[in-house]
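Appendix B, record 7
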Amino acid sequence: MTDSIQDFIDAGIERLYPDKWKRLVPFISVIEAGEIGIVVIHDREVGVLSASAGVLSGLTFSPDLVRDVANLNMDTVLGAYVLSEGQPGYWMIKYHIKLRYSWVEESAGSARMILDSLNAVPDFVNKGIDCLSPNYGGERWGTPGGWHLAVMD
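Structure tokens (predicted):
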């Protein structure tokens, strides 16, 4: 992806989230979308282009939780909900979109698709919270902890 496409994506992020994003290092940006923190990793050198956002933390593992996360993923056309263990016995869910630079062509259409995907992340996070929190509790990741935990995971 050329620098002009990256510039287009940067300009699009600024349009979607004006003054709500910053570049931490050359290949990691963070977005504060309301109460949701999104980490965007855009490392052309290794070919990774992804976005992650925390959904719930402080969950207790159970087969029902695994089943409900799997069912939620079956209804998700873009990205996936990922259940993982942080500290022993301390489970969390994040929403993650993973792309590779080699999967997208160098075009304005691809850049728009990437921006549309980023724009959808808060809706997917809220869907995960709405579907899972009533049965399993947990805490919203929020910001800035939402993007901090997604980076650390």
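Remarks on this record: Confidence is low (pLDDT under 50) at residues 145-150. The CA atoms of residues 39 and 140 lie 16 Å apart.
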